[in-house]
Design brief:
The chain is of the alpha/beta class. It has 2 domains: 372 residues, Glycosidases (TIM Barrel, Alpha-Beta Barrel), CATH 3.20.20.80; 109 residues, Immunoglobulin-like. 23% of the residues lie in helices and 27% in strands. The strands form 6 sheets. It has a 10-stranded mixed beta sheet with strand order 23-22-26-20-19-16-1-21-25-24, covered by helices on one side. Strands 2-5-8-9-10-11-12-13 form an 8-stranded parallel beta barrel, surrounded by 5 helices. Strand 14 and strand 15 form a beta hairpin. Helix 5 packs across helix 6 and helix 7 runs parallel beside helix 9. The protein is globular. The structure holds alpha-L-arabinofuranose (AHR).
Length: 500
């Protein structure tokens, strides 16, 4: 029997809604087909954005959307993606399948999408193959509310008012596809490029995100911060850098043979979860380096690419990275989001890769059909954590399972919304055994509980022919007790409780 002690009096910080963020890249069928289908496609849409996908994402409460990449960002030239569509310059998407990118989804279309979704904007700029002038003009084009050549061009292209850029990434993976730079070199470039990200709207300054490490590369974090954390003319680092990114993908095999998304055994199940749980250690490690420069935690660690990366679905374009999504993905999403919640003092954003039709996507599409994946339902069940206050919680009595790929059978996080509702999210990582859990509050008397569950066999997934194999359901097995609540969490499941 496990016990989850919740001290509702001990508040541990705000869970930034952006921890529940997403990432859209010009990669495979993410943007084209997955999101943008053009007005005349026959698929129901508003200004080209497919209605079914937009509605599902709104229901999931998507808080922020990163665009246009990824590796794509460092070869994207924004001026190719504005103006009349028929005259937009085409390019080769060298990173992703060598296909022709016709640039019909560009800056205006991205903001239209975010407006329809009601989410914050996060644009990733091009340092690898772009100039400072190009980046600086993009900012002027998007955000200047006056008379200037770039603002005038925006107006001519049909958008009178400037847009709000909430976050701007200065390059992507500049240690790799973004230019193969050393941390010292990138750090100096960061200093230079970020200078020209002007805050034309002083009331809503753009949050600047510096390219951070890959997985466990603490040297990158150390050297980049050493080079560019402190601004020479301003001892206040905040404003010079608001976030440092971290990328970490869960790959059960190696990069040559990552493993199938749907055909796996119990051993691979635990291996995948074991690797996903490494996120906790990575956050601690990079946070410790960040603490040396920024003990007051003014800048955020932005985990702006994370999730499972498996082999592509058989028969699909290897450059498109299209993969299915099972209960294993649901469990990886659940434990990762619980980890982010618990580190909300440092982790201010996280964007799972990628939104539709690519890696650990929340939605898959085929023609005019759409399916919601198990990962979608986890984001839906966890949405109540967005903006809530993290509460102190301690789980005792969890078992270690999985043999050499050891994982706890249970994992959780707890928050409280402004109206007092307490949200508990619990994952049972065991493929075979249910787990009894007592929830004990310090003082609170639980009066009502609303519970939801996502469960299935480990390989269970939704297809276009059978879209409802795995879906969120009401969970009736929760009992109110003297000190809190008591429940049995089925094997291979994610449970969310809303307690009043
Ligand atoms: O998500 C696919 C790719 O993974 C991204 O483009 C890149 O940033 C990372 O290496």
């Amino acid at each position: 029997m496990a016990t989850l002690y919740i001290n509702e009096e001990k508040k541990k910080g705000t869970i930034s809604p952006e921890i529940y963020g997403h990432f859209s890249e010009h990669l495979g069928r993410c943007i084209y087909e997955g999101i943008y289908v053009r007005e005349d496609s026959g698929i129901p849409n508003k200004n080209g954005m497919r209605t079914d996908v937009v509605e599902a994402l709104k229901e999931m409460k998507i808080p922020v959307l990163r665009w246009p990449g990824g590796c794509f960002a460092d070869e994207y030239h924004w001026k190719d993606g504005i103006g009349p569509k028929e005259s937009r310059k085409k390019m080769v998407n060298t990173n992703w399948g060598g296909v022709v990118e016709d640039n019909s989804f560009g800056t205006h279309e991205y903001f239209e999408l975010c407006e329809q979704l009601g989410c914050k904007t996060y644009i990733n700029g091009n340092v690898g193959s772009g100039t400072v002038q190009e980046m600086s003009e993009w900012i002027e084009y998007m955000t200047f509310d006056g008379v200037s050549p770039l603002a005038d061009q925006r107006k001519k292209n049909g958008h009178e008012k400037p847009w709000k850029v909430d976050y701007f990434g200065v390059g992507n993976e500049n240690w790799g596809c973004g230019g193969n730079m050393t941390p010292e070199y990138y750090g100096n470039l960061y200093r230079r490029y970020q200078t020209f990200i002007r805050h034309y709207n002083h009331a809503a300054p753009i949050q600047k995100i510096c390219c951070g490490p890959n997985a466990g590369d603490a040297r990158w974090t150390q050297e980049v911060l050493k080079t560019c954390y402190a601004h020479p003319s301003s001892p206040e680092a905040h404003g010079f850098m608001d976030g440092l990114s971290l990328h970490y993908y869960t790959v059960p095999g190696d990069w040559q043979k990552k493993g199938s998304a749907t055909e796996f055994d119990e051993n691979e199940w635990y291996l995948t979860l074991h690797k996903a749980l490494r996120m906790d250690e990575l956050i601690r490690m990079h946070s410790a380096v960040m603490d040396q420069y920024d003990p007051e935690k003014k800048i955020g660690l932005m985990v702006d690419e994370w999730g499972n990366w498996f082999d592509v679905e058989p028969g699909t374009n290897p450059g498109f990275l299209y993969q299915q999504n099972t209960m294993r993905d649901a469990l990886v999403a659940a434990v990762s989001l619980n980890i982010f919640n618990k580190h909300c003092d440092r982790v201010r954003m996280a964007c799972i890769a990628q939104l539709v039709n690519v890696l650990q996507s929340v939605i898959l599409t085929e023609g005019d059909r759409m399916v919601l994946t198990p990962t979608y339902y986890v984001f839906h069940m966890y949405k109540h954590h967005q903006g809530a206050t993290l509460l102190d919680s301690v789980l005792t009595g969890a078992a270690q399972i999985g043999g050499e790929n050891s994982v706890p059978n249970l994992q959780e996080s707890v928050s409280q919304q402004t109206d007092g509702t307490i949200c508990v999210t619990l994952a049972n990582l065991s493929t075979t055994d249910s787990a009894d859990v007592d929830i004990v509050f310090a003082d609170k008397k639980a009066e009502t509980v609303q519970a939801a569950i996502l469960t299935g066999t480990m390989q269970a997934h939704n297809t276009f022919d059978e879209p409802d194999v795995v879906k969120e359901e009401e969970f009736e097995g929760v009992r109110l007790t003297q000190k809190g609540l008591s429940l049995t969490v089925p094997a291979c499941s994610v449970v969310s409780l809303r307690i009043r």
